[in-house]
Structure formats: C-alpha cells, structure tokens
Amino acid sequence: MAVAAVVATALLVVVLAAWAASIGPSGVLTGTGPSPVGTPTESTSVDAGNRATVPQQPAHEPHTPSWLRITAFVVDIALAVLAVYLFLRFLIAPLGRFVAQRHRERLRRRRRGPPAEEDFTVLDPAQAVSRSMLADADAQREELLAADTPRNAVVVCWHRFETQAAAAGVARRPWETSSEYTMRVLDLVDAHQPAVSRLGALYREARFSEHELTETHRREALDALDTIHRTVGLPAGAAR
User: Fold this and answer.
1) How far, in Å, CA of 87 to CA of 194, rounded?
2) Cα atoms in the Cβ-side hemisphere of radius 13 Å centred on 166
3) How far is CA 90 from CA 3, 98, 124, in A?
C-alpha cells in the first residue's frame, strides 16, 4: 500500500505537468490580477494642440501546436489508465483476497462444528498418574514374574512406578530419592497404604540386603502390586 501511494502521488504530479503543458502557461491561472503600481495602462501621445489616448496592445500569447495538445491528451489518458490499474492491483485485489480467505475460514469452522469437549479436558496430576499406572499394569506384572531372580524382580517392579509417573508428567524433584519419589506418586493416587508399605519394604530389602531373596518374596511383591492396582481408581470408574 505504501508503494501504491508513492506511485499514485508521482502519477498525479506527472498528470498535472502534462495538463499544464497542453493548455499553455497562460491558461493555468486565469484573471487579470492587480496592475503593477506606477505602470500605465494607456499610452498617451500629444499632437499639435490635440491629446489622443492610444490603448496599449495586449501581449502576444504563445501558440501551442496541435500535435503537442494531442500528445499531452494521450499521455493523460494513459496515465489515468495506469493509475486505475495500480489502484486495483495494489489495493482492491489484496483486500478482496483477504475477505475471501476470511470467508473460507468461517465456512471451514462451520463445517467442522464446535470442538469436542474432550479436547479441552485437562487431567490433574493424580488422574494422569492413575491412567498411566493402570495402562502399564499388565506389563509391570509380567516384568515382575519374568525377572531372572526375585531380587531383580522386586527392584524393577518398584522402579517401574517412576517410569509411569514420569510418563504422566510428574517429575522427580531434585532432592528426592528414588524411594521418596515413588512413595509420593503412590500417595498421590491414594493407593492402598499397607500394600505400598509392604512393596517398599521388599524393595529396600532387595536393594540393600546381602542375603538371597526367595520366590516367597516375589509372590509377596506380586500380591502387593495387585492390591495397589486394584485401589488406583479413575474418575470414569476404570479402576481394576
């Protein structure tokens, strides 16, 4: 639009100059205007005994050739056509495209209809962790049963809670230990507290003790894990 304004201004100047050239300098401004002070408007000649007044002859106006008038007229028409083209090209056409685009966007939104309510559903941390734990429950249970030793089974089962919480967007705080982080997220979802305490104790025993863990420890860990999964509930009633 700024370029179009500059071009239009330049064209206006050229049109005015061509118009002035076509009509001649004496026709640009009309009217006699005030007479200069002290300049006589009539010349007087004195004859023998008689005084006669002789009117002053008007100045001769320059004649503009006809070919110059025709050329100036053609230039005026061409510049006017160019000005109209630039106006349509740089102002009307972009405005029309903008209006058409806005109209198409309104039609697309109208065809899509209102957005689904679930697009705006934001889960709180407890709901997000609950969903993540229940979605991973079968894989966590299978990992506990498939580990090569009871010690490794208990350790990987406990650490899987950390993975589930991280996937739900609950990050571990810098000052938290692994056990503290897991206890916090299990408390966040209101898991069965005795089962959480039992599985936590088994994890500490597997992680820090030197004696061998048996299959009894694996079964105890599995029972505690199943109880935790049963008590982790969802708002939609999808708790196991």
Assistant:
1) 81
2) 9
3) 8, 13, 52
CB contact set of 173 (below 8 Å; sequence gap of 6+): 181
The predicted-structure confidence for 20-77, as pLDDT tens digits, reads as follows 655 555 554 454 555 555 544 444 444 444 555 555 555 555 566 777 778 877 887 8
Asked whether the predicted pLDDT for residue 130 surpasses 70, the reply is yes
Inter-axis angle of helices 215-231 and 137-146, nearest 10: 180
CB under 8 Å to 120, separation ≥6 — which residues? Answer: none
Among 87-91, 119-123, 136-140, 220-224, where is mean pLDDT lowest?
119-123
In whole angstroms, what separates CA 232 from the centre of its chain?
41
For the chain, give every domain's residue range: 1-23+65-111, 125-231
Max Cα distance, the chain (Å)? 159
Report which of residues 102 and 147 the model is more confident about: 147
User: d(Cα 94, Cα 101) in Å, to the nearest integer?
Assistant: 11
Cα 187 from Cα 184, distance rounded (Å): 5
As a whole number of angstroms, the distance between CA 209 and CA 28 comes to: 111
